[in-house]
Each structure stands twice: as structure tokens, then as C-alpha cells.
Amino acid sequence: MNFSIGFDKRDLPKVHEAFDKIVASNKWTEGYYTELFENKWADMNKLGSVAFSSWAGAALAALDFYNLKGKTVLCPSNTFMATPLATLQAGAEVQFVDCNKFDLCMSFDDMKAKAEKYKPAAIWVVHIGGHLAFEIEKIAAYCKENNIILLEDCAHAAGASWNGKNPGEWGDAGFYSFYATKTVTTGEGGMLVSKHKDVIEHAKKFRNYGKFDYVVRGLNYRMTEFQAAIGAIETDRLKEIIDFKNDYALTLDPQYNNRIKLPDGMISGYYKYIVFDPIEKSTGKVYDEQCHRILKHDVELPNSDWVAGNHWCVPIYYNP
Ligand SMILES: Cc1ncc(COP(=O)(O)O)c(C=O)c1O
Q: Whole-model pTM?
């Protein structure tokens, strides 16, 4: 199975029609399709949704809202550098947390130990590979009890759910990426989701230079109407894409017993199909190098180091 973008060619006429409409409307940004995409995402995710030009813009909007400058933020090391870099860009200090071997996501025990040591203002959970962090319930409960902001990196998690709960529902805000390899892609793009109305209002201003009162100090993180039209069309296809990937995963399972095994009630978006034995045609590692190593933090994270060397990804792409 070769890489293919999760776009259904049967949707091309819809894209052409939308592009014609956009050209005719003379409104190429912040128009009908941006709102349509946000509304569709909000309906699907049951959370307020604001479209951005990237995951990074969406993350910066929330980090700015929570005013984390000078504060400590816990972050798993097993993630893309985007997560710690956005946090550093917002002026916060990052302390890295280990992951579990069974889900590749943040370890509750190490998170608790680091939270007691560093007293963080916020904690990142990253849903690695398309499933949800298996310990998200415990992490969210801990954050609530201790008044810690919970941020969910949902970059991989489009289409995932756990007993009907969606990515971003546990945290104060969540962030999707629509980068070109993701399950839903607009080429480039992102979506902030949140149950908090004030986060949503802040995000809308942040992506647009704080217009019009300029109290919010954002920059330009707007999505174009062309990207938003593709996003809206892709959102309508998402269930089909996820069903396709889940059916395909079922055919892989008997061959790969040593793999990530999902808990009851969890549906993965299968951005990746992760196994723990070497395979011939791996699409590579999710991450080859852990962030604490790249940023040269002097901290021992044995599971993160183990994961970097001991997982492989079986190709899994939507290709009807
Ligand atoms: C876990 C994770 N977080 C954040 C990002 C950043 O997303 P973007 O490139 O849309 O800014 C990515 C991927 O690109 C990612 O994999």
C-alpha cells in the first residue's frame, strides 16, 4: 500500500464547484467555507471550533489565552517538536514527561511525579498515532483536581473517539493538524477546539491580528477559503475514511500480535498502525528522536528512549 492523501477522488466535482463559488464570491478568506468547515467540525466534535492556517497557530492562540509566559508546562517527549516549540515560543518553560510503552502516550505516573516536582500551570497530552492516550481520563481528573490547564495535541487524532467522547473533550483546548500527511488534510491547516466560549472568542481574534479592538496580540493565522472548502468536504467523508481504516486494521491484526492494542470502546483514527516488531515495509517511525534528546534536556525517560528504537508503522491509507 503506497502513501495516498486521504482525499476521495469522487469528491473532486464538489471541490471544483466550491472553488468556482469562491472565485465568484470575491471572498477568498474568512468567508462562507471557513464558517462551514468550523460548523461541520464543531458538530462532529461537539466542541466550539476555530480554523487556523496550521496546528501551530491554533496552539499559540490557546497558550496566549492562558498566559503561560514564564510558567512551567509539562510535555511528553514522544511527540513532534511542534508541541514543545510552540510552548517555548509562548514564553513558557518545558519539562518533559515519559510515555507508556503500551500506547506511546503520556504516562500518568511520570506526569504525576513531574507535576508534584515542577508545579506546572499546564500539561500537554499528545494523542500519538490516531488513538487516544489510554490514561487521558486519569490525567484529566488530576488536572481538574489540581487546577492545571490541560491541552490536547490532537494532530493525529481526527476521527478517534472513546465511548463516544472526542479528542479535545477532556482538555481545556485541543488542536488538530490538517498538514498534508494527516487523515484529514487541507494541505496546510489546523483547528482549535474547546468547550470554553472565551477560548473560542480569543482564538478568533488571535488568528486575525486581534481585530478590531487589538487587545489580543495575535498575528495572521487565517485559513483560506480554498483550504476550508476542502476541509468541509473532507469532514463529510471522515466517517467513511475512519471506517475504511478500521476495517483494514482488522485484516492486519492477525499478522501483528505485538502491536498497540486498543482498550474497549476506543476507536482509532489510524493515522498510524503501530507494531513492536521490525517489519520490511515500515513507513518509518512516528518519531525517530525524542524531543528531550533534541533539546538536550538532562532527564531520564526510559520508555521514550525504548519507543524511539522499538516501533514500526504498517502502511495504512484511505484508498477506496
Ligand atoms: C503531534 C503533532 N503536533 C503538532 C504538529 C504540527 O502540525 P502543523 O504542521 O499543522 O503545525 C504535528 C504535525 O505536523 C504533529 O504530528
A: 0.98
Per-residue pLDDT tens digits for 75-101 = 999 999 999 999 999 999 999 999 999
Give, for ligand 1, the residue of 179, 191, 223 to mutate: max count of ligand atoms closer than 8 Å to Cβ.
Answer: 179
Mutate to test the pocket of ligand 1, among 80, 87, 125 (most ligand atoms within 8 A of CB): 80
pLDDT tens digits, 44-79: 999 999 999 999 999 999 999 999 999 999 999 999
What is the crossing angle of helices 82-89 and 55-65, to 10°? 40
Q: How far apart are CA 311 and CA 285, in angstroms?
A: 6
Domain boundaries defined on the chain: 9-314
Amino acid at 19: F
CA of 260 to the centre of ligand 1 (A): 21
Q: From the options 3.40.50.300, 3.40.190.10, 3.40.50.10800, 3.40.640.10, give the CATH code of 9-314.
A: 3.40.640.10
Residue pair 186/230 in contact by the 8 Å Cβ criterion = yes
